[in-house]
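INFO  loader      accepted 1 record
INFO  loader      residues=525
INFO  predictor   begin
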Amino acid sequence: MNTLVLITFILSALSGVFALVRQNQMLQQNSYFPSRYFSWVKDGYSVYLCLECIGFCIASLLSHKEKLAPFLLIFVAAVSAVRVAAAVRVQKKSIKKLVLTGRVKRLFAAAIMLFAILIAVFCIFSGSLAGEIAAMLTIMFSFVSPLLCLFCRFVTAPVDIAVSKWYINDAKRILKEHKDLIVIGITGSYGKTSTKFILNRILSEKYNVLATPHSFNTPMGVVRTIREQLKPQTEIFICEMGAKNIGDIKEICDIVHPKYGIITSVGEQHLDTFKSVDNVFKTKFELADEVFKNSGSMFVNGDSAELIKRIDPSLYNIYGTQRFDYSASDITYGKNGSEFTFESKDENIRITTKLLGMHNIINITGAAALASFLGVSDEGIRFAAAALKPTEHRLEIKQSVAGSTLIDDAYNANPEGSVEAVRVLSRFNNMKKVIITPGLIELGAREYDCNFALGVEAAKLCDIIILVGLNRSKPLKDGANSVNFPPDKLFVVSSFKEAMEVYGGIADKNTAVLLENDLPDNYLN
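INFO  predictor   done
INFO  writer      dumping tokens
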């Protein structure tokens, strides 16, 4: 056995582990679904995959001749240096960095074990067919990083399933010990996170409340909240429920068994996995099925056209801006906030809030409707609404460069909400209006049309448009050009950093900028 070759293979294995930083980051951002990860590899990593395959071929050729061992070592060392530098650079510049969860650690451990076994076989059976196969597999997995990533995902899947099952059963046990706990489920194509935070604040005027934090809306996010944060004194648990496939909401309902529910909307979201709005509707109403099974009450947003036309109104409490069971009327708003009257059969409450946008008024109305149903007083609703602060990155007003005003709507990713955000920006009178956006994602066949429409709306209401993503921004650019937006006022850049550099050159204290949808790295191209 050539010692130089052994050193080369060890270095190659280390290179493969470093290459997993980027691959595991994208697998994580694609919710560990191999199909969605493979779509990223195909669309966003195809050029690098070709280079990795070429590298594998070169290394394979060099490894077959013992006298070429020094050249193989030099080649692998160069590749390793590039990969280490790339791993560090990617983590520094990434919008959403790799989080070293237990699952990710298992993926890295599987890769290390794979390489250890292959190198051990190479050492023991050097010169034989088994040794040759081990050597080739070592080179292949170390150079073709997506293949290594998918292999590790496959071999760790049984452990991941067992761990998840144990955590879910433990969460169910904890919930059984809270016999009087009121569980509220909130779902919708959009608006669910904002409604959750608003409802949490209003119900806190009367109850001890726990809500799933941030955008924790998957089964394991819900389970983690229960296991780590549910206290004996908790009276109400508000559970946000997200979905990308039929059955996702039912999976969460089978854990928490909600007595009350809110459906904020049904629309064109995640159509790449749902395939149709009908499937979105079917999935969101898995919450209603569970609530009715538990003899509870459901609240739905009547302003959502897809929603209202598909339900029996007699079975639901309906809220919105029209004459429903609970309504918002006499609405006025500007850059300092909103004001409206909350109406029901029994009460009229004048509400003032710092939140901007019609969708926030509807969200407050839905939360106030359920809070009123659960006995929160008029004064409690009024006080809580006045104390509301914008949810982080959802029409949040901030100071930006050169004294300009930033409307941070980075977490918004739906067609209606994005258009509404542009309209909010348009109400900043006597100010230069700028939008920075990469557009909308996960809309399936509707993605081009929705982004085109957003581009049209931005062109009508904004003075300057900055689009992020040289390829992704094409529908937005087409929309803006269709209404003859001035070309010298439209910029297309490759990253948010570059977008802010462009914005920094035009901003002053009389400028307002809307940051609309801050996409993770796997979508920017």
